[in-house]
Amino acid sequence: MRSEDVEIFSDMTNAAVMRHPGRKFPGILVQGDNLYAMCLRADVACEKVGRGTPGYEDLNGLRNTL
């Protein structure tokens, strides 16, 4: 693990916005439990839409990005 200074634009709970050195745009911090919940929802959505259905590939791409 390493420590590094970041610019913090907002440190509100569940809404942290920061920018790492060398990056042009800021990013958001997503807590692990929230990320896990989003992944599960994406899994369910892909299952409901079904492989081969229009839009599935885009939805599956989003799921894979998460």
| Helix and strand composition category | alpha+beta
> Residue-averaged pLDDT, rounded?
93
Poorly predicted regions are none
Strand order of the largest sheet: 1-2-3
Oligomer: single chain
Run of helices and strands:
EEEHH
Residues in helix, %: 40-55%
Span of the ends, CA to CA: 23 Å
- Number of individual domains: 2
Number of helices: 2
What would the principal axes of the Cα set say about the shape? elongated
- Bin the strand percentage: 15-25%
The biggest beta sheet, please?
A: 3 strands, antiparallel
Query: What Rg do the Cα atoms give?
Result: 16 Å
Please tally the β strands and state the result.
3
What does this structure look like?
This protein folds into two domains: 1-30, no CATH class; 31-66. Helix content is 42%, strand content 20%. The protein has helices at residues 32-49, 56-65; strands spanning 7-12, 15-19, 27-28. Strands 1-2-3 form a three-stranded antiparallel sheet, with no helix packed on it. It is elongated. The model has no long low-confidence stretch (mean pLDDT 93).
How is the secondary structure organized here?
Layout lengths: L6 E6 L2 E5 L7 E2 L3 H18 L6 H10 L1
Antiparallel strand pairs: 1-2, 2-3
Helix pairs in contact: 1-2
List keywords for this structure.
66 residues; 3 strands; 20% strand; elongated
Quickly describe the structure:
The protein is of the alpha+beta class. It has helices spanning 32-49, 56-65, and strands spanning 7-12, 15-19, 27-28. The protein has two domains: 1-30, no CATH class; 31-66.
